[in-house]
Amino acid sequence: MSSKTTGLLETAASIRERLAEIEREVASNSYSVGGWTRLTREIRALPDSVREALAPDVSRVSNELHARSHPRRFPLHYALLGEGLATATGGVLLGFGLSHDHPIAVVAAALIWAATFQPLLKMTVGNVLGILHSHAYLEFGIEPRFKMLYGTYLAAPRWARVIFHFSGMFGSPIGAYAVWCAADASSIAPWVTYILAITFWLTLLNIVLFPLRMMGVRRLGSFRVATSSGGAAAEEILSPVG
């Protein structure tokens, strides 16, 4: 066994021990913020094969840390079924609204698709790239979100992570734009298309956050730009380690 291989094995063993230490701290409610960030920064700098080997342990500890603030989880397949049903409901509302000249139904369809296209597109792209998810949870008590298996995220090459976040930037605009185009081609009242246009342009905020973060903007008030898909894509590009 070469000295390089031996060194990588020792590094992986050391990181597993540090992951176990974070687990113990979480279990005893003694974890202090910062340790996880430092450790994942080191993991990013490791070769692909080592990151892949560490992926299950990283995902497990990431989920345990995440559960501190989001203890209520939902099975992934149930959440995906809910997103699919909501998307189908949006399609029904769109068809009904356009055929019966019902503005509220059309606007509701735009809001639903803007909300559901983003996670569905991002998760689909993630699965193709090997970035998987473990479960769903509620943000702010009402908004469904999907928790990444963070180990699979770190194990993916940087270009895959960037594409993954880019896909999250375009889901909402695609959903809103599709309804806008359908309404614009119909005989529905022009003021409805104006509302749909505004909805579409508002969904572009996530895209705008990408160049803002690339230019060095970290916060907009209390909002951290890096928590958005656009901001996260920029973070990956700007990161000094892979």
Describe the structure.
There is one protein chain. Helix 5 runs antiparallel to helix 7, helix 5 runs parallel beside helix 8 (190-203) and helix 7 (158-184) packs antiparallel against helix 10 (229-238). The protein has a 3-stranded antiparallel β-sheet. The protein has a two-stranded antiparallel ribbon with strand order 4-5. The mean pLDDT is 94. It contains 10 helices and 5 strands; from the N terminus they run αααβααββααααββα. Helices cover 71% and strands 8% of the residues. It folds into 2 domains: 1-69, no CATH class; 73-238, no CATH class.
Write out key terms for the chains shown.
2 domains, three-stranded antiparallel beta sheet, 242 residues, two-stranded antiparallel ribbon
Summarize the structure.
The protein is mainly α and 242 residues long. The chain contains 10 helices and 5 strands, in the order αααβααββααααββα. It folds into 2 domains: 1-69, no CATH class; 73-238, no CATH class.
